[in-house]
Design brief:
Strand content: 15-25%
Mean pLDDT: 77
Low-confidence stretches: 6-12, 398-422, 426-433, 444-450
Strand order of the largest sheet: 3-2-1-4-5-6-14
Distance between the termini: 45 Å
Number of helices: 20
Shape: globular
Number of strands: 17
Largest sheet: 7 strands, mixed
Radius of gyration: 24 Å
Helix content: 40-55%
Number of domains: 3
Length: about 450
């Protein structure tokens, strides 16, 4: 949790800036900055039973009103009320909105397109994040935009080039062509605030079973997991394989970074909760995206919703509204998103804040932000650089090991997969990391779905 709060002067410069942090974050700030810090002490965090509950309470409008009132009361005691602007990092700022009712509050959060090969983009959101973000709040205004021929050509260029950059034939194609038609289901780490807030299911296992039941007669479901935070055990996968003929899972795929977005090319549809993979599936690959959670940042891009009362997925998939997706993608790339360099440079950041503080409706502010930057050129330049360095699917160098899980890669497996400058001598001992990697490959064969 970190917020930046500004008082603006009449000359458009900032006469003072306060940064709100938790007490545990104080060690990250040099002493010369301490006079500008508002530190939330342990009394603040004692309002919540654990860290994730604090995230939920600070970000969810549906939580206990009593908790939100207590948070707002606490913040109002340690803050002034004459701030001109508050910037919330990956936070809706619901608590701040209660404590600072007359202050303009914006949120800065990672964009839907920020993992390689995409550039490192950040959304400057005037409305919030997740279910209260601009794409949800301003959906009707966005889809009623009119795109020029130049703007439509840019979108075609963007899609075509990133489809090529995510091209991974020879790695996945043989196995995936044998399981079509299939839907991609990227599982997520259960114990994070986004999943806790928006999931309709108690666990990722419950979600997977629900989706498999809905697709029994028509489609296979290819499940992927977060490679560093896998949720399901070997026993779970063995039971799923024996119980559901439409369950597909390939453990040897998990050594590749950005796995799920690399598999979208082969999928017929995507099922997701809050993952940006769902947004990329809709906007880059024009795939039907079915949401398996409550309303969140993926909702504006989805064609339907899975829940326990849903009918089975029909043999004919719901078609996407490509015209709406074009406008949504263009808005994200040119209005909502900013490059990292814009946010960390004084000139770029001052330009962004200046446009916001100039006032107007959200649509007008976003239009002014678009005029003051050339994101079309930025994206073309990045694509040209990415094409020169593209290497297809990227193997991880190291991953976290979680006990009793078949898909967690152990430590570093460079000795097993990456070329070495020095040839290995016959008497050299194989390290424990390489041995564990070999065991993992053997294990993958025992639970591989043919």
């Amino acid at each position: 949790m970190a917020q930046e709060i500004y008082r603006a002067s009449t000359t458009n410069d900032f006469c003072s800036t306060d940064i709100v942090i938790g007490e545990h974050q104080l060690r990250y700030f040099p002493r010369e900055m301490h006079e500008n810090l508002i530190v939330l002490d342990r009394n603040f965090f004692s309002l919540f039973p654990d860290r994730f509950r604090s995230d939920v309470a600070l970000n969810d409008l549906k939580v206990d009103q009593k908790i939100r009132n207590e948070v707002a009361e606490y913040l109002s005691k340690i803050m002034d009320k004459d701030y001109d602007l508050a910037i919330c990092l990956a936070d809706k700022g619901i608590a701040l909105r209660g404590a600072l009712p007359n202050t303009r509050i914006i949120s800065v959060v990672e964009s839907y397109f920020t993992r390689k090969p995409f550039p490192n983009l950040w959304n400057v959101d005037l409305c919030g994040i997740d279910d209260t973000d601009t794409m949800n709040t301003m959906h009707d205004s966005i889809v009623n935009m009119t795109l020029s021929a130049k703007e439509q050509n840019f979108l075609n260029y963007f899609r075509e080039n990133y489809r090529n950059l995510l091209h991974s034939d020879g790695i996945f194609s043989e196995k995936l062509n044998n399981i079509k038609p299939f839907g991609l289901l990227p599982l997520q780490h259960q114990n994070v605030s986004a999943v806790e807030m928006y999931s309709r299911h108690h666990s990722q296992m419950d979600l997977l079973i629900d989706i498999l039941n809905h697709c029994t007669d028509n489609y296979n479901i290819l499940a992927t997991e977060h490679p560093q935070y896998p949720e399901l055990s070997k026993t779970s996968y063995t039971w799923l394989r024996e119980t559901y003929r439409n369950f597909k899972f390939f453990p040897d795929f998990f050594r590749f970074e950005g796995l799920s977005q690399g598999l979208l090319k082969y999928a017929d549809f995507c099922v997701c909760q809050t993952s940006t993979v769902g947004v990329q599936a809709a906007t880059i690959w024009n795939l039907p995206v079915y949401q398996a959670s409550h309303q969140n940042r993926v909702t504006p891009f989805s064609v339907g919703c899975f829940n326990s009362n849903s009918k089975k997925l029909k043999s004919k998939l719901t078609e996407t509204k490509s015209c709406e997706l074009d406008k949504q993608l263009f808005f994200v790339l040119t209005r909502l998103s900013h490059s990292r360099s814009d946010l960390v440079s004084a000139k770029g950041f001052k330009r962004i804040i200046g446009n916001i503080m100039a006032g107007g409706t959200c649509i007008e502010i976003y239009a002014n932000l678009a005029k003051s930057k050339d994101m079309l050129t930025y994206h073309r330049t990045h694509i040209e650089k990415a094409e020169k360095t593209a290497v297809g699917a990227r193997p991880f160098k190291s991953l976290i090991h979680l006990e009793n899980n078949p898909i967690s890669l152990i430590g570093s497996w460079e000795a097993e997969t990456l070329p070495s400058d020095k040839p290995r001598r016959k008497n050299d001992k194989i390290g424990w990391m390489a041995r564990k990697w070999k065991k993992l490959k053997k294990l993958s064969k025992t639970i591989m779905v043919k």
